[in-house]
Amino acid sequence: MGGSGESCIYNSTLMATGLKSRVALVAASSQGIGRSIAEAFAAEGCRIAMCARQAQALHEVADAIRKDYNAEVLALPLDVTDSDAVHEFVEETVQKFGGVDVCVANAGGPPAKGFLAASLEDWHRAVDANFLSAVYLAREVIPHMQRKHWGRIITLTSISTKQPVPDLVLSNAVRGAVVGLVKSLANEFGKDGILVNNVGPGYTATQRLSELAKRRAQALGQSEKEIVAGWAEATAVKRIAEPREVADTIVWLASERASYITGQTILVDGGAYKGL
Questions:
Q1: Taking a C-beta distance cutoff of 8 angstroms, is the pair 72, 119 a contact?
Q2: CA 127 from chain center: how many Å?
Q3: Cα–Cα distance, 189 to 74 (Å, whole number)
């Protein structure tokens, strides 16, 4: 599909993200990539709603964001696998800020296990945390976005949506369901001004990556440093990602600069995925 041939004149206003004063809800945002996402939205002038299971860590991060970015922040400890708690969180967000413009569905990844080592309880927990939590959040925020005829829902998954990762059978299986959800929501609610996309990080410098490196090192008889170096070598850019690089991609998808992108999975993996 080619262009119309009409010129487009850009100015400094058009180049902005358009996110100032928007309300960004970021789940699992007390550490790692989730924290970087909350900070990145705060840097854009958004009002932030944060949640995580660990109250102390969550409130410490919320206080830091208030101080560093002069941001309005609502922080509530909760488990995103609890649909009632998610409902209350969104309602409190709306009561405080007047709505929800951006929702980032995020949750800690399933444990690193092979298929026979994963129990049925592990499977249930993975579905609850990494699929149903996105369903719960979407059900709660979509009506508020419909009223404004504007919204962004962004799920955070993994490179495993494109290629399986060894020792992560739970993630490999469950993350694909999120992609199906994203495509379905994008098709159903695009007419309401709601864009829905998925971001799949590759190997990123987080506590979860350290845990995976430790497990892999024990299994292969190598050092954790050697494992991480191997992951870096497998990328095109020869390094591991920083959480802020994933956060920057999510901010861009939420912005007015990505206003015609929906139903997509964007990998932030440094070229680790080798498929077309």
A1: no
A2: 16
A3: 27
All structural domains of the chain with their residue ranges = 19-203+241-268
47 membership: H or E segment, kind and range = strand 47-52
CATH number of 19-203+241-268: 3.40.50.720
165 burial (CB, 10 Å; 0-12 / 13-18 / 19+) is middle
Question: Residue 17 burial by CB count (10 A; 0-12/13-18/19+): exposed, middle or buried?
Answer: middle
Q: Over the chain, what is the mean pLDDT?
A: 94
Q: Tell me the average pLDDT across 77-86.
A: 98
| Rounded Cα gap, residues 25 and 153, in angstroms | 10
CA gap 44, 34 in Å, rounded: 16
pTM for the whole structure: 0.93
CB 142 within 8 A of CB 194: yes
CA–CA separation, 39 and 26 (whole Å)? 10
